[in-house]
Amino acid sequence: MHHAFDDWMKRHFPEVKFERYADDILAHCSSQKQAGKVLEAIRIRLKECGLELHPEKTKIVYCKDADRRSSHEHESFDFLGYTFRPRLSKNKYGKHFVGFSPAISKRAENKIRKEIRHWAIHLRSDKSITDLANMFNAQMQGWVNYYGRYYKSAMYPSLRNIERFLVRWVMRKYKRLQGHKRRATNWLGCVRKREPKLFVHWRLGLGSPVG
């Protein structure tokens, strides 16, 4: 792709900035007319190289924001685990405005939830709560580092699933708490109060309340 696309793009459209990761490409055009021209040229170029554009993923997207207020068939796109779309933002002076911004995509959220389920935390009653933190914190921190760069709160619902499985773990590990979800939740909240940094999601304030 470096020869088939990168070098060719720089030669034929030096004014158009682009990003490419493997075979996912994002090109920034200044108008719909330019976008149509560039898209058709890319289509022809890839065909010359024995390649073709993905029929469903390929589209022209209008980056709607406070300055671009028209409408278009497509006003969002996914790239590298993020969904870019119009979102309400706040500047450094506290004023709200609409910006075209990224946040974790639904597909990435689902992958995180699936991974958490595969951990089967609730079945690991042979482990201590510190063991669980040591086993999974690195993965959680990786998610926070990557998907938390923009609109960190958008990934919070996915991380809260960890707490749900931890409550089930408590009920399974301690016989006196079996079948007592509220008491198990309270037990976990007390641990969090003593060790608020034990789990990565606790450091973000996503733990069980005490009460």
What do you see in this structure?
The protein is of the alpha+beta class and 211 residues long. Helices cover 46% and strands 15% of the residues. It has seven helices and five strands. The chain has helices at 2-12, 32-48, 106-119, 129-147, 156-173, 181-194, 200-203, and strands at 17-21, 24-28, 77-79, 82-90, 96-104. It is elongated, with a radius of gyration of 23 Å. The mean pLDDT is 94.
Properties at a glance:
alpha+beta, 211 residues, two-stranded antiparallel ribbon, 3-stranded antiparallel sheet, 7 helices, 46% helix
What is the molecular shape?
elongated
Percent of residues in helical segments? 40-55%
Distance between the termini: 57 Å
Rg measurement, Å: 23 Å
Secondary-structure element order, N to C = HEEHEEEHHHHH
Structural class: alpha+beta
What about the largest sheet? 3 strands, antiparallel
* Biggest sheet strand line-up: 3-4-5
Number of strands: 5
Report the β-strand fraction as a percent range.
Answer: 5-15%
Q: What's the mean pLDDT score?
A: 94
The parts where pLDDT drops under 50 for at least 5 residues are none
Q: Helix count? A: 7
How are the SSEs placed, and which strands pair?
Blueprint: H1 2-12, E1 17-21, E2 24-28, H2 32-48, E3 77-79, E4 82-90, E5 96-104, H3 106-119, H4 129-147, H5 156-173, H6 181-194, H7 200-203
